[in-house]
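User: I'm putting together notes for a lab meeting next week and I want to include a structural view of one of the chains we've been expressing. I don't have a solved structure, so I'd like a prediction I can at least talk through. The sequence is below, exactly as it appears in our construct file.
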Amino acid sequence: MNRKSTILWRMAVLGLFVSLVPLGIYALERHNRIDTEAMLDVSVSIRTMSHVTVDKFGDSVWEVNNGSGFLVSSRNCEVWTNHHVIEDAALIEVFPRGWNRTAGIAARVVNATPRHDVAILELENCDQVPQAILGDSSRVQAGDETFAVGNPLGRNPDSISRGIISHTERFRDGTTPYLQTDAAINPGNSGGALFDRSGHVIGINTAIDSTRPGTNVGIGFAVPINLVMQTVADLRLGPPSWGDAGFSGIVSTLTPDEAEVLEVPGGGGALVVTKTPDEGPSREKLEAHDVIYRINDTSITSTEQAVRLVGQYGVGETLALDLIRGGERHKVEIVLGEGWQGDAAPSPDSYEGFLGMTVEMWDSADGDRGRFKKPVITKVHSMGPAHRARISSSQKSVLINGPYVIPYLLDVKTVTGVAYQGEFHPIATVEDLDQFAARAYREGEPLLLEIEYWARSDPQDHKQDLELASTAFFKLMPQRAIAVVTEPGPEHIVGRGSGPHLEIGGLQASSKTL
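Assistant: Thanks for the context. Below is the predicted structure for the 514-residue chain, given as C-alpha cells.
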C-alpha cells in the first residue's frame, strides 16, 4: 500500500470514529438518563381538613394538613400514602402535578393502618394521571441512588430531591424495617414515593430524624415497598389487626451486666416487668419484677426486639415466656389480644338551615361585641357547607393577670355580603343571609360569601382594638344536614374527641344556625 493510500485509509477510519463519537455519547446519555418527569407525573399532593372540634374556650376549630402520595392504579384511581397523613381527616383532596384549581380531587379512605403507617385512597377521578411502577425493595442496597418526590412543608408541590440509601433495615420504635435515605424529606413529604434511579417506587417516605422538630438533617425513613404491598393486601381483607401481648408501658430493658445480677441464663440482656398489669393479655400472667429472658425459644435482650418478635404473631396465637420470678424459673403462656384500637370517626354535625354555621347579631351588645353590626360567625358545624368551604368561626381567648382570668375576643369573622347568580348583595342581618341561603338551596346554586376578618395586631394584648385585617370570599353549596348512619368499617378509622369546655362569659344576643 503506497503512502497516499495509507493516509486516505487512516483518514477514513478517523472520520468514521469521529462520526460514531456523538452516537456513542447519545447512547450513553440515554442509558444514564434519569426520568424525573415520570416520577413527578405519578406523584400527587394531599390536603386534608380535620373534623370540627370544640376547644377549651367553647369555639369550633379545625386544622388543615398536607402530605403526599402516588397513583398505583389508573383503573381504580387508587393512591397510596401514609396513615398519619389522613388520620382524623374529615375531607381529603388530592392535587395531581400541574393542578391549577383551588379545590382538589375528592378522595375517600378505603382502609388504613398505623402499624406500618399505610393508607389506601380512592379518588373520584384520576384522568391523565399515570400510575407508578412498583419496584422490589429487597434488592435495594446501601449506596443506591434514590429520589424523593412530594410536597415539602405543604408549600412546594411537585418537588424532587436526590440522595442515596444509607441503610436498608433501620428499626425505630416499632416493627417496621425502614429504608434510611439522605434524600431531603420534610413535613409534607409524608406518603410520597421514594424512587430508584429507574423510576420504580421502592418505598413510602414516612419520617425524619432531626435535632429540632420539623427540620431535615439528612436522615429520612421510608416504608419498604414490599412491606407496603403486603400491608395493602392485608387491608383489602378487612380492618387492621395484629397481635398484642400487653407489654406496652410495663416492661423495661436490662443490659447484660444488669441481667447478670439477676442470674439470667445465657449471658445476655432481658426484660423486667416494671408493674403488674391490671388489664390486657398479660393480666394475671405477669407480675412486677418478673424477668423475661426468652419468648417462644428466642432469647430476648431488649424491648425493641420483643416488639418486633411479638409483631410476627396474630390475634389468638400463644406466646411461651421463660422468666424468673422470685429467684425461680417459670414458664408462662400468653394468648395475644387485638392490637388495633382505632376509634370510629365522628359523624357529621346536625344543624338547622343550609350553611352549616351559627351566626349572631351583636349590634346591641356592650363592649367589643357592640362594634360589629353585621352577622358574626360563632360556630362551624363539622362536615357542613361552611366547613367544606374552609370557613372559620370567631375565636375567644383569655389572659392570666395575677389571680384574674380576663376573657376577650381573639378575632371576629363577619358576613358582609353575598354574590349570587352574578350579582353582589350586601348583608345586614341574619335574616338577609338566611333568605339567600334558602333560595340558593331551592335552586341548587352556589353562594359566594364575603367575610371580613377582624383581629388585634398583638393577639396577647386584650386592650387593643380589633381591626379589619382582611376580606376574603368563600364559595359554598347550601345543603341540609343529612343524618348519616354508618356501620363500623375501614372508612371510619380514627377520631378525636372534643376538648373540655370553659365558659368565659355569656352573650345575650340573637343567633341562628344557618
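A couple of points you could mention at the meeting. The radius of gyration is 30 Å. The chain is about 15% helix and 35% strand.

User: Perfect, that's what I needed.
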